[in-house]
Amino acid sequence: MKIVAGGLEHETNSFSNISADLNHVQRIMSVGDDYVRGCTGVRCMMGGFIDECRELGITLKAASKVTITPCAPTQKDAYEYFRDLFVEQMWQEHLASPIDAIALNIHGAAMADGYPDLESDLLEKLRERFGSDMPIGMVLDLHGNITPRMLELSDVIVGYKEYPHTDTYDAARLVIKLLHEMVVGGKRFYMSLTQLPWHLAPAFGVTLSGAACDVKEFAASCVSADPALRDVTFFHGFPYADFDQAGVSVTAVAETREAADKASKAVADYAWSRRHDFATPVYSAQQALELAQNSPKPVVINESSDNPGGGTPGDGTHLLREMIERDLPRSAYGFIRDPEVVRQAVAAGVGNTIDCRLGGKTDSFHGEPIELKGAYIKTISDGVYINKNPMGAGGVRKMGTTVLLQVGNVSIVVGTNRQQTLDDGPFRVVGIDWQDMDVLALKSAQHFKGWWNTRAKTVIPCDSPGIQCADLTVFEYKHLNTGYYPLEAKSEEY
Ligand SMILES: [Zn+2]
After folding, report:
1. Number of domains, the chain
2. 97 and 2 in contact (C-beta within 8 Å)?
3. In 84, 145, 302, 367, which residue has its Cα 20 to 30 A from 64's Cα atom?
């Protein structure tokens, strides 16, 4: 048996003013063997594909893969370039020796200009080339906005169950297993989708405890109770993608249509009955720092509203400004993105000081630049480290050139690339031992908890203004169905 894998991962935030162009996509694309090499031994999706294929004796080949850091819809020509190349690569692989199935590593909330349901467009092009009989399995992010068209065009959809996404590897293995059962065992799977009129902000989606954890466990109990049922995923959706089919949904994969329909409805019913339990307290920068003062240390404050993992610029200044004004002892911010300040610090050199305008340079949501006088340059780093978070553990993270500025009591890590903080890496690369700090601030909505949850004594979610803030009423949507809970709908039915 032979499988070809690959895909495009992008979570679209329609309120971002950054978008991926053709140049960017060409530059970050990994192709074939490089893609496989980079993921071997890593607990990521492709790592799951690799290990399951090896165990089942399946030959795995890779087409291209591109992971675009979340931002605005991908530019049309960039998406079309990737799509056409991707389909052609798969086709050439098929001509070289026939493939038996396609495994897609894809997100579910990707949009490109002119393609609001990007995943379905990609599937359509694959179907045009390979016909309706080629088994296609997809691993989707828990934040996918799942559409009926995606189910029509694929055979197996499995989403991650965890947020932090610590189970991408497991979801990928299951997709390969099910494709193997289709090809070698001659099985056929039925899928069911129940879409709910509900927008769930990522700030309320953690599955380590609380309502999202309960729904995840309920879905797992349904799978355990019915041998015909192979997977149920509770998708949280991504409400910053301004798309009329965005929202919470449940998918089920089963050996019978009845089992799939029954499970997706049962889990959707349960999730809907718990929807009022999801919202948990979030705090302004001022409130978060007040709370931190009297909380058990170390405290981690996560500025979830400027989480680059959800398409924000990563240069938001609301929380950092407040920390500097309070001159908080034993505090560190890790990290804010500002390539201009990094270049300035590198030019000045370690041991010197600079005056600079830090952050707040991308848009009007995330605060004004902070004027710094005499910021001391403590460290200059290449910003490369190995990720310790169970989500993608062992993978290389690249912050780009990174500097540590000391401003009074506050240690400020300034990086070049747009990414969220998953573990202590952004502190480590500049020589900060997090255990020396009382207050650590970072940009992430939930993923950081995969590592920090067992280390921080207190976690305080900071919801300063930003394009991933918890309050969805601040956005001017053009396409999103705003009749959904909690924006307008008050109906008890769905
Ligand atoms: Zn996600």
Report:
1. 2
2. yes
3. 145
